[in-house]
User: Fold this.
Amino acid sequence: MVRKAIIPAAGYGTRTLPITKVLPKEMLPICGRPALDFIVEEAIKSGIEQILIVVSRSKNMILDYYDRSVELETYLEEKDKTHLLKEIALPNVHFQYVRQSYARGLGDAVLLGKQFVGNEPFAVLLPDEIILANEKQPLKQLIDIFTKHQGNIIGVKKLDQDQLKNYGVIKPELIKNKEYIIKDIVEKPQKSPPSDLAVIGRYIFDPIIFNYLENVKPGVGGEIQLTDAIKEMAKAYKSYGLEIDGTCFDIAKMSEYVELINYICGPRGKQQQ
Ligand code: G1P
Assistant:
């Protein structure tokens, strides 16, 4: 059973400046809700009970969002607006936080979750990617495969050649429809990507991954890359890729952010139906 999840949210949000100078990227609004809340909802609907959010100095707004505001609750009660209390109800999940003091990369952020995770499988969700599922939640799709294979399970998506250089890309061996064994994985291949299957920010890991994260050397961008730890671990333990069923939106790309907002709350959006 996968009960714990890590959400890395410590980055500077350089792709979304200038607003991210003051507003954490994870708090970018999508029809009145912060982007992060869609990820938290996905985790909860997939059976996650405890979430560790990796934050940095300027991210206190995230902690405030997932805390009670007693003043606001009192105000709504006094002003006879109790119907709004459900808008500020807290999600049914246990939150913990850890600060990443040095911007050493995604692998380092995940490594900060070692104590939280202990000795059980866990999920990692990257909040840049909001994935709207057709039926089953994206993370649940991975968890279901995990119960079958018991190795690392990495969510992937087929992308156009020109986009692959911005992602981790796997070298797959097809097992059956949409399921692969990961023979290799490369972070942001600048030429000759090993396939068109890109890592899209949803992972299930065996806690052994921490041994690899502790030993990995800085990679692309001088950062500790999660991809490099997956690459090393895949040599010794079977790791799997699963093509996720759902529509992905990278909220750090303005066009996809706007598309997502239209998709959810535009004139023909889901929330209008
Ligand atoms: C990170 C990972 C990369 C993955 C991507 C998905 O990159 O390092 O392997 O494909 O997230 O969004 P970043 O977007 O932080 O550069």
Notes: The CA atoms of residues 65 and 90 lie 9 Å apart. The first strand starts at residue 4 and ends at 8. The pocket of 1-O-phosphono-alpha-D-glucopyranose is lined by residues 106, 126, 128-129, 167-168, 187, 198-201, 225-227 (CB under 6 Å). The chain has a mean pLDDT of 95.
